[in-house]
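Researcher: If convenient, please comment on what follows.
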Amino acid sequence: MIVNLLIFIFVLAALILVHEFGHFLAAKAFGMRVDEFGIGFPPRIAGVRKWGTLFSVNWVPLGGFVKIAGEDGESGEAPSGGSANDTFWAKPIWKRIVVLAAGVAMNFLLGWLLLTLVYATGTPQRVIVSEVSSGSPAATAGFQQGDLLEGFSTPQSFVQYVDQHKGQETSFVIVRAGQEKTLTATPRQNPPADEGALGIALAGGGAPGESVLTAAWDALVSASQMFVLIYVMLFKIIGQLFGGTNVLQYVSGPVGIYQATADATDIGWAYLLNLVALISINLAALNIFPFPALDGGRVVFLLYEKVRGKPASAKIQEIVNTVGFALLIALLVFVSFKDVLRLVH
């Protein structure tokens, strides 16, 4: 469990750092003054100033942050000791939009690169328990969703093995939370019509490696399709929420992501990288979504400024972003609570 928790923290921190590094690179490229690039969150452990930026290491290892001069202030106002010309608000609107979108681009790029690596190396064949029927021999034996079935490369090979041992007490080796366990069950001679002899549903995975160029292209197509699908689904989720549909049951928070990370780690590093790629692309689509407090919401304010000829007042932006942030925190708490209930049950 400790190893899985450390992997989860590392993955989360890496994804946030990559996002913030995108903002950092774009801001530097456009001549904006970056006051600090922090690894982790305060309180600060140590820091070194280089190229006009304080690079700090902080005690809370859950990501990082970038402080761009004037980013949260009024347009044209320069912090003490600085010039108004190198602040965020002093730059043309299109440059500010690029800086905001750069974090999204970096998350998408990371997802694409990880998928390319997975496609190029291939993934080993695995058979996983996706569902256990209540009252079945598998449920009695202690099989659980997410168990990795050792010794089988395809669901078909497992089903064939079970059929050959109907009515016989049979041992099965599974991997759960990184630990091997031996479970004993007797497959049924005459199972219910909607269940197999053992009473479990299976998921199989695995693919051979591709050439690097083919892998890069296939990964780009997959990443783009995932990004568009996730982005469209976000609009559908918002619409269904107002329509009274319970769509949050399909959304996972940190607890659910931790469990998925632990499961992928147990299956193999290729599956873990594939999951990290998916999470990174999810973050890209989520952050560019036009919702207050997200990068996409801030882009909407900049587009408003472009059309109107002057920015919305700082007070209005602060209120809108504060409300948006509060709603996001409330959603995060609710989804995390649902994730915990799923794990308990």
Notes: Confidence is low (pLDDT under 50) at residues 74-82. The longest helix spans residues 212-242. Strands lie at 34-50, 53-68, 123-132, 148-149, 170-176, 179-185, 200-207.
